[in-house]
């Protein structure tokens, strides 16, 4: 009688232990499933599909700090391309300068106003002068805010009788602002100034 009860009790303990093991296994599997599901959902949120020229391109979102220096350099390059690329066409000049001024504060506006008052842009149009810029390098110090930058570039000024190559060095700082269609990088150039702008070579045109 006692042996039979003992066997029943032992069997019950085994069944209870097995049941607890199964329940623990189910809980672990459920937790892993939920974790993997949230992980997959997070990855999908960071993945963007772009349709360009009939092709689907895959892109990945990233934190701003991961690309801060790259975006800052491109912002500075974009501003310089718009501000210093000029052709003998009033509409082209106004469009380029307008795009550039969205990327900078009043320091760039004052520089533009000074050049306009000194008939610089009128001289570009009347003299059929074209001006292009090639960015050599941009140094950005992201250790402090606003970030300081220095841009090294070469200008080519094509006149009717000559081609002038000039060295251009500028500096300023970058402040974070909201992104927009006119300012996709979300930076604003402050205290913009030209610290060097001198002729390198002058080539006569035939």
TrEMBL record:
It comes from the Bacteria. The chain crosses the membrane at residues 15-35. Keywords: Membrane, Transmembrane, Transmembrane helix. The keyword Transmembrane helix applies. InterPro entries: Conjug_transposon_TraK (IPR022276). This is Conjugative transposon protein TraK. It comes from Flavobacterium johnsoniae (Cytophaga johnsonae).
